[in-house]
Specification:
This protein has 2 domains: 33 residues, no CATH class; 64 residues, TrpR-like (Trp Operon Repressor, Chain A). 77% of the residues lie in helices and 0% in strands. By secondary structure, it is mainly α. The N and C termini lie far apart (32 Å). α3 packs across α5.
Amino acid sequence: MSSKLKDENTDNLFRAILSLETIEECYSFFEDLGTISEIKAFAQRFAVASMLMEKKTYKEIHEKTGASEATISRVNRALHYGADGYKLILERLKKKESNS
């Protein structure tokens, strides 16, 4: 965990996110918290991570998401050298899907 990121305010933000119970609650909270552009950027990065885990090419990812090569590269770097947050969530979602 990054010591640059961790502080009381960030802990409180993450506790708030963990308290959300529905997709609708998430939309309400995140619409108040950030701009539409910021939320769309997070959603795009998450889609890029998912496609990279599926071994899609940069070209396929760009065509599907509109993400720039720099964004795709940044997400790819996080997948290989980051804190494994993308992997944790994507594997958890995949497992949940297969149990449905």
